Amino acid sequence: MTMSGRSTDDPGQNMTRVRGPRSQGRSERFVTVLRTLELERKIKKGRLLELAGVRSQSSFKRLKAALAGSGLPITYDSSDGYYHVPPAASIGRHGIDTRTRAQLAQVRGAVAALGGVAQEALEDVLDMLEARIALDDPEAVAVVTSRHPQPSGGADFYATLDRALSAVREHRWLSFTYEPTAGGERTARTIAPYAVHSHDGRYYVWGTLEGDASEFPAPRLFALDRARDVVIEDDTFEVDTTLALDDALRYSFGTMVSTDPPQEVVVRIAPQAAAFVACRTWPAEHSRANDPDGTLILTFKVSKPAEIIAWVLSFGGAATIVSPPDAREELRRRAQAIADATSTEVLVD
User: Less packed terminus of the chain by CB within 10 Å, N or C?
Assistant: First the structure.
């Protein structure tokens, strides 16, 4: 039996010490860089690297490019050994619509899953954009005009997301206090984070829980809106290359990750809703067929059908579950509960 955590003998979880405290997320560090350059107008390379939390020459080059894109290009002067900002340069001259912050969060989450050189190049630019928006809208009060669900946690949420993304990128342990979805007392958690997952405007960090003593420790999803006091630890973990979020979500309709064996759930979509459903490929969709009358039959393979049951209910009778019987019965039970609640007389003074 292995245990996921810093005290384990498992070489995949052994820790190495990172030089210097870097408990902030990358965008939080970039905010400090932008403020410092705007105020002081010059900086030594060593200090810039320390503030940004980067070390390699390639990271430094990408940082310079991101700074230039944000309105603060830097040029080296060999006479004094400083990188200087031109007198007329200012981050204030490069305005960004702060209402785009929710969409930017989605893009940052998607890019984090790319891997490779493309991920590194894009993340520097996106993290700097987040830093610019954070300066213009520090309390995250601007609301995007999009009709899609978006985070409602304000500045604290975006700081949490930034730290989660940074910990994933830098392979560093992430600690926080966590309130379970079902409620209850908050507990301290430390995880080895592998990915950030977004679903319908809610964000999750996927990672292996420290101290998991099960025979086969599996990463779990933690909702970032339920995490508090999020800290990026100095310690790093060795990445288990056999773990992939796409594999974990293969039999999930959204966020329910389980090691239970997958089962087929067959859903019938009535003709009036078939066009809406048919134009998309849905998570865990296995096959589809069309009846002559326009009915659409979808077959899903999921470990837990609860999310599909909720999805079917959203069609208000234009969809139903054909099989398995227990999922069909649960759908009927929930529909009856809705009918009972709706028929209850409400007295209004």
Answer: C
What pLDDT, in 10s, does the model give residues 300-347?
A: 999 999 999 999 999 999 999 999 999 999 999 999 999 988 876 555
What are the chain's domains? 263-343 (3.30.70)
Q: HEC states along 12-79?
A: HHCEEECCCCCCCCHHHHHHHHHHHHHHHCEECHHHHHHHHCCCCHHHHHHHHHHHHHCCCCCEEECC
Task: Please return the burial class of 270, using the count of CB atoms within 10 Å of its CB with bins 0-12, 13-18 and 19+.
Answer: middle
**What distance in Å separates the CA atoms of residue 331 and residue 300, rounded to the nearest whole number?**
16
Q: Which of 149, 123, 153, 126 is nearest to 139 (CA)?
A: 153
Q: Could you give the 3-state DSSP secondary structure of residue 245?
A: helix
Orientation of helix 116-136 relative to helix 154-170, angle to 10°: 160
The model's pTM:
0.81
Q: Kindly report, residue by residue over 158-198, the tens digit of the pLDDT.
A: 999 999 999 999 999 999 999 887 777 889 999 999 999 99
CB 16 within 8 A of CB 237: no
> Regarding beta strands 202-209 and 220-223, do their DSSP bridges make them parallel or antiparallel, or are they unpaired?
antiparallel
